[in-house]
Amino acid sequence: MNEMIKVSHLTYAYTQNSQPALDDVSFTISSGDWVAIVGHNGSGKSTLAQALDGLIDFKLGNIWVDGTKLTEQSVWTVRSNIGMIFQNPDNQFVGATVEDDVAFGLENMAVPHDEMQARVDEALSEVHMSDFRRKQPEQLSGGQKQRVALAGVIAMQPKIIILDEATSMLDPVGRREILGVIRKLKKRLGITVLSITHEIDETTDADKIIVLNDGKIVSTGAPETIYSHSGLLLKLGLDVPYSQRLKRELTQRHIKTPETYFDEEGMVDWLWQSLLKK
Amino acid sequence: MNKILFGRYIPLDSFVHRMDPRSKLILSFLYVIVIFFANNWWIYLLMAVVAFVSILASKINFKLFVDGVMPLLWIIAFTMVIQILFGTGGQTYWHWGIFSITSVGILNAAYIFVRFTLIILISTLLTLSTSPIQISDALESLLMPLRKIHFPVYEVALMLSIALRFVPSLMDETETIMNAQRARGVDFGTGNIIQRLKKIIPILIPLFVSAFNRAEDLATAMEARGYRGGAGRTKYRLLKWETRDTLATLVYSLMAIGVFALRLL
Lengths: 278, 265
Ligand SMILES: Nc1ncnc2c1ncn2[C@@H]1O[C@H](COP(=O)(O)OP(=O)(O)OP(=O)(O)O)[C@@H](O)[C@H]1O
Ligand SMILES: [Mg+2]
Known about the structure:
The complex is a heterodimer.
Chain A: E1 3-12, E2 22-30, E3 34-38, H1 45-52, E4 60-65, E5 68-69, H2 75-81, E6 82-85, H3 98-108, H4 113-126, H5 142-155, E7 160-164, H6 172-189, E8 192-197, E9 208-213, E10 216-221, H7 223-228, H8 230-235, H9 242-252, H10 264-277
Parallel strand pairs in A: 3-8, 3-9, 6-7, 7-8
Antiparallel strand pairs in A: 1-2, 1-4, 4-5, 9-10
Helix pairs in contact in A: 3-4, 3-5, 4-5, 5-6
Chain B: H1 2-5, H2 15-18, H3 21-35, H4 41-58, H5 62-69, H6 73-86, E1 92-96, E2 99-102, H7 103-129, H8 132-143, H9 153-183, H10 193-224, H11 243-263
Antiparallel strand pairs in B: 1-2
Helix pairs in contact in B: 3-7, 3-11, 4-7, 4-11, 5-7, 6-7, 8-9, 9-10
Bound molecules: adenosine-5'-triphosphate and magnesium ion.
The site of adenosine-5'-triphosphate has 14 residues of chain A, from α1.
């Protein structure tokens, strides 16, 4: 497994603030991994994401993306490898219609017209939005807009997708749809996923979790390891997923629980089944 | 206001809808210029026929055009009254101080009515059959020669299309803010002009703040998607001049020739 992202000693402070938003951050992400970055409000998650995409100009530390060192010269190459989806569905919809928006990134990359058409079609069907291609943003729900944003990213064929709280303004159904599509993409194309969230429930897909607090990495590890330090998470204003908590409570009462991760619905099904078996 | 300016595009599949937005823009313009040369009823008849045939070719419900004229009826009526009261020439029916009602005045008022109505019909046809983004595409294409004098055509067109795209969002936002202020007891409906204007300020400030936040988010999102200025981009939506555009241009040119021929009557 080669390194897709390598960050070393990254430090960055916004000019107005004395406290750095990122303080000596170092980590690596292997190609094809799903990494979740968690932390409370203002812990520096968005700043980190923007640094990776070359959207902020940091002076201290280095970033390598797919082997290329991020510099002023390489920033457009690096950006073409990264697809970003932001929090607010309304504020990243550039096009007048769904298809225009999906094509926006391709237009910027000067993709020829015929190829553009094909890539837009494909990306829209990937997120199940083909029937909405001529719709205007006001005619779409938040979840649909985020799916369009995702299609815009897919059309660019990036190696990395960064979600900066991309599902935090969506209802559970919208959230599940977006994460479902990304899960499939990751499986099929081996895309590296970086999902930023303060919903710990969203980290259950991750291979690795990075916990950020006041610009510093305080913990890194597999989800199970991180969840077992629930004290740390609570201290940081985060919480382990509900289903994980349920499992722990059950185990303490000497009830055998499934090894694999289940979400709430999965746990409900499992409980019904184990009750029936009795 | 909502109803007059925005969200009027009626997506249908018709001859007019399929036309190149550039030809629609140019021909509408031509129509408005030519109608100012009209000086007798035959010309108005000819131009009315062209307008109605164009409307028929768009398959858009005629009622929508009536809705387009209605809000402007007051302005038309006002102009007509001025023309009737101050127009001079021909036979005088009534006279009082500077006011007089004359046959020429009445005739001119009638011309103005027809002229205004036809202009509104044609421009309504343009906006009902062409989406704002198509209009902005057409402008971009037509303004392209200005690049020679370093006018930022691409950027202006993108700005225009983004502005159009955010109009409904900002209107929603205004509504939300107004409701929030109403919930705090602000009554927008009462008071004199100055009091009412004062009540606008607590709407404008949050609106501006949110517009700036949006703009910043949008700029970041655009940059993240590789936007670095207009030059060197390819276009997803291509404009294509087709036979139907040539045909429409021919019809409108014949009309223009007809108008100038009929002027000699
Ligand atoms: N544009 C900016 N100018 C000045 N300071 C900023 C700016 N953006 C963020 N900050 C500050 O930098 C710190 C980190 O912010 P950042 O947005 O990265 O946090 P976050 O973890 O993404 O938070 P959230 O969960 O609220 O999105 C915060 O203290 C914040 O106040
Ligand atoms: Mg953030």
